[in-house]
Amino acid sequence: xxxxxxxxxxxxxxxxxxxxxxxxxxxxxxxxxxxxxxxxxxxxxxxxxxxxxxxxxxxxxxxxxxxxxxxxxxxxxxxxxxxxxxxxxxxxxxxxxxxxxxxxxxxxxxxxxxxxxxxxxxxxxxxxxxxxxxxxxxxxxxxxxxxxxxxxxxxxxxxxxxxxxxxxxxxxxxxxxxxxxxxxxxxxxxxxxxxxxxx
Length: 199
Known about the structure:
Rossmann fold; 7 helices; 7 strands; two-stranded antiparallel ribbon
């Protein structure tokens, strides 16, 4: 089976990129294929423009860069997103990628007089979010729940995609690095397991 790994970090030497390398190694070890979409290095434009709004309102043909990203996802059986947590959420680059790519007519179908049809029910999603704070900060302030509400449910469940893994890899600047790399490798090895553990 085939996975698309999307990484949203500008520094190829970052822990986020190292996590992606471990996910890829795990996929390879399990006999699966993958493609890495390094949307920073590739220069993906996250700005939602008038052309994108026209797609949303009238189902116009999406811009070429959006069609290319949708084709990558269409080729995949699973989607893995690896990203740093900025201000308790997705970085702007990844949020813009989702805003522009997961559009009406492709990820969902809806109109003013019709209910939402979830079009990505075939897609499994694995989320690896890296943050510097500790579990206590995320739990005490409700950030972990907020992230799962807005990302796992607000984005992916709304499109019908199943979030199989939703892992917060925290304390990334204070010694948790090896544990995060081990977790990423395990996620890669288990992406297509039917008994993958979420979390």
